[in-house]
């Protein structure tokens, strides 16, 4: 069959700082192609809706699948499905991905029959089974992870091995459009999948059932050798949790003489525990490191169940700087912040040399915050769930909250963008421009056109065609098993040695970890 894989348009944040290749959709496309289908891929981050309709006319697919990784993209996906059903009534349409896996029934209801099914969980594990069922007239409800208007299939399953799934990178038509910071162009790659921690604001662990699986160093190195882009974004939720795995990949890269520049995300406690791994990586091309601090005080850290002290966070920042790495930090702005709190955070951002990103507390389906806060939502417009809009009641009047938020985000613009950034990166910028790469240079002056309190406030006034259902009363006692897409499989699903498993549980649950740790 002919299959068109579609990734939706860019979100607010990514219109400035980065544009990442749709690795998840490439993996699904690769799995579909391996199952014998003719596959094309369209990324609306880099192309337009006009390109979509043109590809439908020319390619005439039997199946269209959409990536529903981000909640804010749900309305766009629904609009495309409705119009596609009107123009091409016989096309089978399904949606998969992270966010829609948690809200499958809601999305199906909003689609009013234009979506044939939702594929929950790891799409690259089951897309071949679903396409086989569609092609041969079988019951799609026999496919793991499928939900349709007629019912629900067996629970979703994992891919048998991360070594067996490879992304169809060759299907992207504009690979030079993907970048992150000065890594322009940049490809994305995964070394591991899943997260063994359980932060209250995150749904990575609830999606993967607290599993943690790794690809072999040899397969990773093979993939790096095939990637043409000089920049690499490592998409792991927490890089190098397992010291031995991180070091083995580094050794394989050194042995083969692979020359790339890397950007990754990790936790402060992982960085401090596995210092030698990060030191070795800084010697083979690691240049950017993103650390999700989330808060600048102990109360905030406790709220997010980070279980990393402020002292440890600052120690990690200092160590990363000592390696010569460019450090980026994320801080979550809570709707309860007043002017004084914003000013305190602004001063802190000005005092440190690092890049500080400010996001907004956002209850996402699949997170503990969602189950505790969803009843308090001030909006049911999916488009506002992008970590840049306030969707919970704010202490300040909403216009003032956005003024303070953007004023705080402006610190990043002042310190690290515009002419200031160009002075520090003149040589890099000149090289990129000589090579025809303009993504990084263009983004240096985009901040004010995207981050604008009046525009953010106006977003709340837009008519919303698709609304989240009204949520039930907040859950007082939450059974974590109700959160999962892939059910928890315990210790056997985590590719960690015993010492690392103990470290994870200690940092996850505090001093009582040994008594409470999973079997």
Q: Which key phrases capture this entry?
A:
Rossmann fold, seven-stranded mixed β-sheet, six-stranded parallel β-sheet, disordered C terminus, Hopanoid C-3 methylase HpnR, methyltransferase activity, Methyltransferase_Class_B, iron-sulfur
Mean pLDDT: 92
CATH level 1 class label of the largest domain? Alpha Beta
CATH level-two architecture of the largest domain:
Alpha-Beta Barrel
Rg, nearest Å: 22 Å
Largest sheet, described in full? Answer: 7 strands, mixed
Fraction of residues in helix: 40-55%
The assigned structural class equals alpha/beta
C-alpha end-to-end distance = 45 Å
Could you give the order of strands across the largest sheet? 3-1-4-5-6-7-8
CATH topology (fold) name of the largest domain: TIM Barrel
| Number of helices in the DSSP assignment | 23
For the secondary structure, the number of strands is: 17
Explain what the structure shows.
With 519 residues, the chain is of the alpha/beta class. The chain folds into 2 domains: 2-152, 3-Layer(aba) Sandwich (Rossmann fold), CATH 3.40.50; 178-396, Aldolase class I (TIM Barrel). 41% of the residues lie in helices and 14% in strands. It is built from 23 helices and 17 strands. The protein has a 7-stranded mixed beta sheet, with helices on both faces. Helix 9 (243-256) links the parallel strand 13 (231-234) and strand 14 (261-266). Helix 16 crosses helix 21. The model is unreliable at 511-519 (pLDDT under 50).
